[in-house]
Each structure stands twice: as C-alpha cells, then as structure tokens.
C-alpha cells in the first residue's frame, strides 16, 4: 500500500528538553493478518479499536497514533476500514445480498398504496 503523507507530522520529543527527536511525516500500513484483529479488541470502543489496529499495522506506538490531527486520522480510518469486514465495525454479520424478494412490505412515499 502507498504511504499516507501526514498534513501535520507526529513529533516525538525529548522529555527533558522538548527537543524534537523524530518527526513522522508518513505512515505505511501493511495488510492485516487474522491475528491482527486482536488489536481491535484492545480498544475501549470502535474508534479506540481502530487506533490500536492502525498503530499495529503502521508499526508505531498507540500513543503516537493518538497524536494524529483529525484530518490525518480520518484518512487513516478510511484505510483501516478498507481492510475490515463490515460487521466488525457495525456489529452486524455481513451476509451476501439476495436478489429474491423478502416478503416484507415496502415503504411508500405518498401514504397511498402503489399500483
């Protein structure tokens, strides 16, 4: 996968001086393996789970992933969601779409039955 260039780099600073030791300007995510999904469960919610999984796939600490600005984090979420099955984020089990009618009535927009 192509790296994501960050609009605002993640800066790792020295505790004593505040000097920038490392500036992360881009993130590259590897494709997840089945065991990587355990990182998603380490979070306290869906967004936190995405942060943990993103950090693992990018090879950086969770605390550093949390430093992303909102615009960059939205781009990261898009990338991570592209790897995941829909049910992992929604709680629903993704099932293939069926072309057969469901037998349930369809909502109408005018209140009157449609012919």
UniProtKB/TrEMBL annotation:
<protein>
    <submittedName>
        <fullName>Phage tail assembly chaperone protein, E, or 41 or 14</fullName>
    </submittedName>
</protein>
<feature type="region of interest" description="Disordered">
    <location>
        <begin position="94"/>
        <end position="115"/>
    </location>
</feature>
<dbReference type="InterPro" id="IPR019289">
    <property type="entry name" value="Phage_tail_E/E"/>
</dbReference>
<dbReference type="Pfam" id="PF10109">
    <property type="entry name" value="Phage_TAC_7"/>
</dbReference>
